[in-house]
Design goal:
- By secondary structure, the protein is of the alpha+beta class.
- It has helices spanning 12-20, 25-35, 61-73, 88-100; strands spanning 2-10, 39-45, 52-58, 77-85.
- A 4-stranded antiparallel β-sheet has the order 2-3-1-4.
- The longest helix is centred in the middle third of the chain and has 13 residues, at 61-73.
């Protein structure tokens, strides 16, 4: 399984509906994720550009994308962003591969 950070922003109409009828949207997201073979590890609201974040454990990128697409298709989100997350071990592995790649930036002398 892989981890993903999913950020979302509600539309004004969604905020209006939630204000008039406060409900726990985390349950719906958890059920959606479970139907697609994933698990919500955390669901939080936030301030700023995005209204909330979901920490997701999904089997692959396609599943994470499907969850985002399905949630957005309901029409209550104005923006989403899904970021794959790497564990420390995966990052170390990537750093080792990068080091072994032998890539060096070409520089020009400034005169």
């Amino acid at each position: 399984m892989s981890y993903y950070l999913m950020q979302f922003a509600y539309s004004a109409d969604a905020w209006k509906a939630l204000t008039e009828n406060p409900i726990d949207r985390a349950d719906a997201v958890k059920a959606l994720a479970a139907r697609l073979g994933a698990q919500v590890l955390g669901f939080y609201y936030s301030f700023g550009e995005y209204d909330g974040v979901v920490l997701l454990d999904a089997p692959d990128d396609a599943t994470a994308a499907a969850i985002s697409m399905a949630a957005a298709s309901a029409g209550h989100l104005k923006a989403t962003r899904t970021t794959p997350l790497l564990s420390v071990e995966q990052t170390i592995e990537a750093l080792k591969k990068a080091s072994a790649a032998g890539y060096r930036a070409r520089t020009r002398e400034v005169r």
